[in-house]
Amino acid sequence: MSGRLTSSRPYPTHVFAHPPQQIKEIQMNANAYAVRTAPDTVRIERILPGPIERVWAYLTEDEKRGQWFASGTMEPRVGGKVDLLFLHSRLSDEPGAPPPRYADMEPNGFRHESRVTAWDPPRLLGYIFGEDDEVRFELAERGSDVLLTLTHTRIASQEKLVQYSGGWHAHLDVLADRLNGRAPPNFWKLHAPLEAEYQKRFAAV
């Protein structure tokens, strides 16, 4: 992830390239920007196709998580070791180079070692992210769909709030594409306009 509030602004235009049968999903995620809920906290939600066990697998299993976020091992218990390998260029078949500020993240990626802080399958996953940040994923069934709520707390600076919000937004867009059987666009092409948008949104807070 690049890490290094609901509003009237339109959702990123790439979603409108999807076929008409995905209008329901687009409408449900129409206000899908991250919201700053505290000076050091952002929350972002997505409605995803179920069942809940399938979404949980994409959060916790190496191969599936590597399709939208980062591959690597995760010990299934509180206190368990997390070893993430980020390779953003491999999240899509569409080519695209990172912007200069993130050039050191490619082509070999980078690793992040962490530990699990919450483990309650298939509804709650948490782990340390960055220096001392914590990320929590909460899953709740909504009929045949699943509401994913991601909360990232203890973010150290305004700059990182912007970076992480753009990164999570782009990663969750890739996850939604994967779960819906679509080929996602290049991560960096998603991330650049989102980071610019969050810069505007959080500048006004």
What would the keywords be for this entry?
alpha+beta, 5 helices, Alpha-D-Glucose-1,6-Bisphosphate, Chain A, domain 4, 205 residues, 7 strands
Describe this entry's structure for a reader:
α4 crosses α5 (187-203). The radius of gyration is 16 Å and the shape is globular. It has a seven-stranded antiparallel beta sheet, covered by helices on one side. It is built from five helices and seven strands. Helices cover 28% and strands 27% of the residues. With 205 residues, it is α+β, with helices and mostly antiparallel strands.
Distance between the termini: 24 Å
Named at the architecture level, the CATH assignment is: 2-Layer Sandwich
From the spread of the alpha carbons, the general shape counts as globular
Using the coordinates above, name the CATH class. Answer: Alpha Beta
Average pLDDT, rounded to a whole number, is 87
Order of neighbouring strands in the sheet with most strands: 1-2-7-6-5-4-3
How would a textbook summarize the main sheet? 7 strands, antiparallel
Q: Structural class of the secondary structure composition?
A: alpha+beta
Quickly count the domains.
1
Q: How many β-strand runs?
A: 7
Q: What name does CATH use for the topology?
A: Alpha-D-Glucose-1,6-Bisphosphate, Chain A, domain 4
**Given the structure, what is the number of helices?**
5
Give the CATH superfamily. Answer: START domain
SSE series: HEEHHEEEEEHH
| Contiguous runs where pLDDT drops below 50 for at least 5 residues | 3-28
